[in-house]
């Protein structure tokens, strides 16, 4: 089929699909409407239909040069160095008649210096090219004629259906369709994107769970309308149109290039963004030309030497112009002498002598200086850094790898390290340590920061002896007999305590794994915070043990009377997921008796902004407790809830569905729906466990 035939065939399909018309795209006879610049339209499993748009390929390049730009760009980089620019000037000067030396004495050394430096740059860029080739040639399973075919990453196209196996990397930004795990979930590691090693959870739309086997996946003919490529790793706005049904898409259904699949046999996804349009590549800057502090100091040193050289030449030139005279017969300054030595024109003599002396004294600035440093750094990176056993990581069998030698000496000049406190200097382990419920603080533990502060101030802290009710588990390091084993029923406000525990057990995206028993169950969470909070709910007698797309099962203890255990199913109506912009997460659930409740947890700043009026004493007390937790080195979190009437929820849910399907300002519209819907009653302090070698 010729090129125009394919275009006509694609046009025919575009105009003939009854389930693919939308208000943002119109197709006229004999004319293909260009895509709306605000978003892109992708036809899944149909390369011909996507041919019109000419999406970018999936091949990536991280090299600094190419064949055409290597020489001009490489020379530009070399002549940024003051010494090279100086010797270029000297080489040009040596080709003039006033030069007392042959041009070869300056041109050859400069050429040799440039050649060695360019060879080093070419070698390092060649290694980048080889790495790109390895990545672009990585095999991936693509659906073709109802079977999986193995092709390299670089041949992948937008709209393709791919299969990624366990521990494999995602070749492009994918729409998550189906997984071998139940409930359409998968676990991914985003260490290459954000440095976080804890697993993140992604969940496919329930409508696409069946497209797992190649025979079934071949029937998938959905249309994706989504935002244009951008570099925001944590946002995504789009809709999936399938069989005349529009389903909103969120970051929870997107698998980004650079992430890897974990604890999942394989997943099936549709390619959304490829190559340099993927989010990770749009965040990657072009390879910069890095110059170390030493090089900049050398430039200043050479400028100082040039200043001394210029002063010497200037004094010599003035002296030549002043003292030149025909009375010195041995100089042979007759009438036919050239202008450079003609005593009748002393200014010309001084100027020309100035350039002559600059050429003669040019060796004051050593041309070999940069070459020597380049070779030393190159050998240092290849022979010392790459083979340093102290930088070898045994667990992952990963040696040190210096991708460039330009900044070697910077490693020994680090004076300050700026880091957040949540993962870089810690074991990424969170423990439930203290809490404030209804204005009352619970938890008797003392943090390392409190001990260290007391020691610095010469104070002695009386250690509180652990109670018999103390329970310790990964993620739970709480000790207070007033809340354990149902003792919360005897507190001043047991109803508030009960709502607090239910919020911990319901408001999350954690997935349980293993046996449905408190001793053997494990929780897969997007962050250690969430796992710690759900573990805390379990220890308080609200054991979350099962999740379906619409129901959370909680085994509650001591609700009606001490010792009584009952299984309660909560219907999940809506979930507003946490992100770094919203700084909170909300869940709307329905109790078995029909009660509808909105549970919310998030940063104290955003929760306090959304509180109903009143209850000032408890707000003030809780704010003070938050300050105490923070000064003790605890991460803090606020919990809140609100009862919703059926009428209010019905009208709210309609707006929620419309906002969730919007392609424009989706986050803003969802945010507006949550204002003034919560009532504060609890705050949490979560303990941050530091690495042993950095706890001081």
Automatic annotation (TrEMBL):
What does it catalyze?
ATP + H2O + phospholipidSide 1 = ADP + phosphate + phospholipidSide 2
| Positions with biased composition (Low complexity) | 12-25
Topological relation to the membrane, as annotated: Multi-pass membrane protein
Q: Which residues bind Mg(2+)?
A: 420, 422
* Presence of the UniProt keyword Mitochondrion in the record: no
Which is an annotated Pfam family here? PhoLip_ATPase_N
Give its E.C. classification number. Answer: 7.6.2.1
**Localization:** Endomembrane system; Membrane
Q: Where is the signal peptide?
A: none
Similarity remark: Belongs to the cation transport ATPase (P-type) (TC 3.A.3) family. Type IV subfamily.
Q: What is this protein called?
A: Phospholipid-transporting ATPase
Q: Which residues bind ATP?
A: 420-422, 530, 578, 601, 635
Q: Where is this region: Disordered?
A: 10-33
Q: What class of enzyme is it?
A: translocase
- Organism encoding this protein: Cinnamomum micranthum f. kanehirae
